[in-house]
Amino acid sequence: MSKNQMKMTSFFASKKAGGVITKKAPGAEMIGKRIKVYWAGDKAWYEGEVRAYEKGRHEVAYDDGDVEVVDLGAEKYQVLTTTEDPEPAAKKARLEVEKTPAPRKRRIVGDETDSRRKSFDSSAFRTRYKMTPTCKMTPTSRDAPAAVVSSGSSRSSPVEMDASQLEASGDAKVGVFPAGAHLHDVDPAYAFLTSERRDAKGRRKGETGFDPKTLQIPPKFLNETKSEVQKQWWQIKATHADCVLFFKIGRFYELYHDDADVGVKEAGLVYMKGEQAHSGFPEPAYGKYAEMLLARGYKVARVEQTETPERQKERVSRAAKRGRKLDKAEKSLRREICSLTTPGTRLYTYLDDVEATVTNDGPLLAVVRDGTRYGACSLDAPTGSFSVAEFDDDRQRTRLRTLVGEKMPVELVLPAMDAELEDLVSRAARRARPGQPVLVDSLGPDDSWDVETTLNALSEIMPRASKTTGNHHRTARWPPVLREAVDGGANLAIRALGAVAWCLRRALVDVELLSMGNFDAYVPPGCEEEEEESPAAELSSDEADLVRGVLALAREDAARRADGDGRDDDHQTLAAAAAASSRRLTLDATTLKHLEVLQSAAADGKTGSLWTLINHTKTAGGARRLKGWLARPLVVASDIRARAAAVSELVDRGDDAEDVRSRLAKIPDLERLLQQLHTLGSARRAPLPPDQDDDDDDDDDHNLETRHPDSRAVLFDAVKLNGKKVQQLCQALDGLRRCEAAIDVARDRFDGGDEGGVLRRCVRAFPSISEHLEQFETGFDLERAKREGVLEARRGADDAYDAAKDDEAASREALDKWLASKKTELRCPGATYVQTARDRYAVKLPADVVSRSTFKLPKGWVQKSKSQKFVSFSVPQVLDLVADLERAEKRAQAAKVDQLRSLFAAFDSRRSRWDLAVKCVATLDALLSLAHVSRRDGFCKPQILDDDSAPPVLRVTNGAHPCLETSSHITQVVGNDLSLGGSDDPAVLLLSGPNMGGKSTLLRHVCVSTILAQAGCFVRADEFVLTPVDRVFTRLGASDRILDGQSTFMVELLETATILDRATSRSLCILDELGRGTATFDGAAIAHSVVNHLATNLPGCRALFATHYHDLVKSWADHPNVQLGHMDCIVESDTKVAFLYKLVPGISPRSFGINVARMARLPAAVLDLAKQKSAEFEAACNPTPHQL
Question: Which secondary-structure segment (H or E) carries 981?
């Protein structure tokens, strides 16, 4: 238990004892003495013993079991003259119900106006249970969910525990109860929170329609709750039962009951004293503890005090003056949920401890369906990026699984009434994130928005239709993707977006994220369409992406020049013309997993993956862009060649490339910073001026709804937190300056001549930002704002503030001139101003001047005070001038209060400019990363043939899997030659060879090299020639899906069915040992039929088929579309085989399975019998003519 926590713990009073008030500064001589300490807050003495002394502070162990570290020199205390050992707690305890709340200590700390212990002490509102060694209690097990995968929670059945066992198993500190023994565990009155848990409509968990977000609290329980703070907690918990409440009392966030259990178990907090489960931490530690719970899959609701005691009193007073009678709840200090953070909606704000953040990022994904048609919406909350999709799917749900595998969501939002969909998507998500928690939110009918509700919600946030273009449709100025979804009737996609929007509204960040307008369309595998020729046809995909950014900036500038009514439609037309083909190489979920593209099967999920191989980016934006390139490589030959040309130039000019790359190293995550500053600049987060309250308009509800609760939050470290806000702006400014510097170097090194290309487009598309940055760098004293948390605008930065300050100065000058004129008029050079209780500028004259017989009191002057030396007066003219001054000061103060938010809003108004700058640098960083890996020995630039080259070709010379050389246990990699398709070679390779001979590695190598080549990277080979592939199919490994009710063989056949159904003449397929999961003859028959389909029905489809069915291989020896090959080996003796890992033509003589069994150290007797049986089986299957 921390000292702060010990200091604030509630206590029970002890008997008074006589003594002498000590005045001498105490020291080590106090150790072992009995004393009593006076607590001013309670106006009571508390007894205890001094246990230790260090550096001027004493440790006092009070008789009630609490321990406090205190400076006795600053406290009022007495040394007890008669020592009276307190009666042991175990002897005094007995089972009884005590109706009177126990007396308790209270410390007043700084300006903390409401003791966190007093306002929420269990003894203050319920009967307190005392235990005896003989009493029996029935605490429930406190096994909190280790990896939360559902928004609900549950406890195991009760078990009995003797109080003596409880004492032995509890905390060593008296009065601190162990887990499972607190009130909500053992008191039947709290059963509604555990065993009798129901939602707001009385439904139990497991019943149809159960809503885990709500909690039904018995009215009698609430009525018996005496403290209004306690009622606030229960009322919030009733609507947020799926969240852990960080409930602010004073300077501390408190956790109670089952929330306290979670805090202790998952975040390492400690229980406070008392039978009520209770833990907490100080305000500055919010980010640390929120991160710990979010990383484990919990939701965290931050409840803040949203008015100061002064404003509370003013509010109550105003209501009384208006004749409005407030009840006790309305009179209490307001508290509201100011943020509700989930793993999928976290924004990494100024409150978060970003340095302590656990890497568990992933999007929020919502899915709805109608039959086999699906709508989906994913959100990357930290960057404010939405992606929407609607598509039909096959029986294996290939596209849906691919979507989940590619997005790797950390949180799912699914319809509550569709158990099949929830089961499918949640299991796919867990496969994509092995070992990591995935939160599942189930939305019931009351929480699910239909299309019209979603569109109405978006209409409140999105830009309204332009008044000058004549297009008044409500979606006219929405992001193009949303407009097309509405116009095209993509209702499922809109409903999925509505599910995400509902979650964001509950999390209080819907306006902040949706208003960014950052939407794109996710195109599932096989849904791509050939696009018509456009004026941008000469642009590569990467160049067109940058051009869209340039056009977005032009649109923003045009809108600004036209006061918000720019010719939006014209620019949208230009953007559409620059749109690149949406066609990409399709990698479905099965392929991503089999080839370990984004993550590997290693324990860390990284070692051996293709992503780890190529990711050498220096910026977060570059990493996101590169990962997108890898998950969805290019498919159009001209696009691939354009990116590869940029990479090749960077490879050839390695020193220049590494120089530019090194300059990207210190650029922060600008995409996140831009989203954070957009949120901080939101108009609804504008703070209230000091003299204004939410109910000034006598319309409390309206003001509370339109302003974000965070605008009202009372944060005790506000100065520090404001400094962190400014720090985010400074980081963004510095990061953009670094972007500009890196681009300047790149421009100097790579922008010579008139040739185009992706690399030069990155440099030339970079916007002019220096002048815009300078406005923020010079307009405000940012360094002072970081230190003091207060922004002071320099002259010219804020017109409203400047005008108010000018009027303020003019009013003061007028007051000075008036006083100077009166000094002359009254012949009194000693006249001056003085501030009194009622008059800010009272005129003070010397008493001897006023007492002159010639002194005539000017008209309207009223004497306010008098002393022997001076007399002060209230003067009407001065009062008028002071009124002008105060009006100017009020305007300046109002401008300054919102100045920080206004600064963020001004920065955000140039977001299209910043976005384009970040996009250019991210593209450059991704290219530099590909060049860095491509510079390795043994890598070559792939030769990409035109799409219309017939038939398709895949040719590799001395190629190898690029990830093998990164393995610590592989000393030498053997290269292989392979040629599929074209005019000279069959497109299908039937591959045989010994177990562990390298067949599977060869299959993976071909696919991985194809993915790298189409991503624009060099490949591990001496030569690699490729006609672009439209889709990579894989059928590898042996695994079942127990939860799906699918055997290993069934999984094999489902994957094979997808290949036969979806493959085209442009596809690449690999199948490894198909048919081994069933009887030999059935397996061989199926394998034969699949090879026949590939060879005859899909001419040009490049395929590698590995098998141990040697008769199958022999049967295709003369087919013109099939070539035979095997992995070579040397049989050194009857018992030893040396694998050469080299692909050679022909059929492998045997599979050498028994030799591999010997390597695995099977017993010799088993091996001998296996060898005998193998010979018998072979003889039976291949009889000689004599046997026939």
Answer: strand 976-981
Do the strands 411-415 and 439-443 form a parallel or antiparallel pair, or are they unpaired?
parallel
Domain ranges for the chain, please list them.
3-86, 122-341, 361-527, 799-896, 936-1151, 1152-1188
The architecture of the domain spanning 3-86 is Roll (2.30)
Q: How far apart are CA 745 and CA 928, in angstroms?
A: 14
Residues 6 or more apart from 1019 whose CB is under 8 A from it?
939, 940, 942, 959, 962, 1009, 1012, 1013
Dihedral sign from CA coordinates of 286, 287, 288, 294: positive
Q: Which residues pair with 415 in a beta bridge?
A: 443
Residue 487 Cα to chain centre, angstroms: 32
Count Cβ atoms below 10 Å from residue 10 Cβ, excluding itself. Answer: 26
CB atoms within 10 A of CB 28: 10
State the CB neighbour count (10 A cutoff) for residue 984: 8
Only one residue has tokens 């890598």, namely 939
Mean pLDDT by 10 residues, the chain (1188 residues): 37 37 69 83 76 80 70 85 43 33 38 42 37 36 36 34 39 71 91 92 90 93 84 95 95 94 95 91 92 94 91 88 87 93 91 58 94 95 94 89 92 93 93 89 91 94 70 79 91 96 96 93 71 47 73 68 47 44 80 90 86 95 94 92 94 93 94 94 80 50 68 86 86 94 92 71 91 86 70 75 90 94 89 81 90 85 87 91 90 79 90 94 96 95 87 94 76 89 92 86 95 96 96 77 61 83 91 74 83 90 88 85 89 74 86 73 80 71 52
For the 122-341 domain, the top CATH level (class) is alpha beta
Q: Which string of b and e fits 1109-1140 if b means at least 16 CB within 10 Å? A: bbebbebbeebebbbbbbbbbeeeeeeebebb
Q: How far apart are CA 982 and CA 994, in angstroms?
A: 29
Q: Is the peptide bond before 986 cis (omega within 30 degrees of 0)?
A: no
d(CA 1092, CA 1084): 12
Q: How far apart are CA 693 and CA 109, in angstroms?
A: 27
Residue range 799-896 forms a domain whose CATH class is mainly alpha
Phi-psi region of 91 (alpha: psi -120 to 50; beta: other; left: phi over 0): alpha
Structure tokens at 770: 């220096």
Residue 1130: which H helix or E strand, with range? strand 1122-1133
User: Rounded CA gap, 256 and 481, in Å?
Assistant: 45
The fourth-level CATH superfamily of domain 936-1151 is P-loop containing nucleotide triphosphate hydrolases (3.40.50.300)
Q: What is the pLDDT of residues 557-572, one digit of tens each?
A: 666 555 444 444 444 4
Secondary structure element (H or E) that encloses residue 379, with its range: strand 373-380
- Please tell me the distance from the alpha carbon of residue 353 to that of residue 730, in angstroms, as a whole number: 17
**pLDDT tens digits, 303-358:** 999 988 888 888 898 888 888 888 888 889 999 999 999 999 998 888 886 554 44
Spell out the residues 6+ positions from residue 220 whose beta carbon is closer than 8 angstroms to its own. none
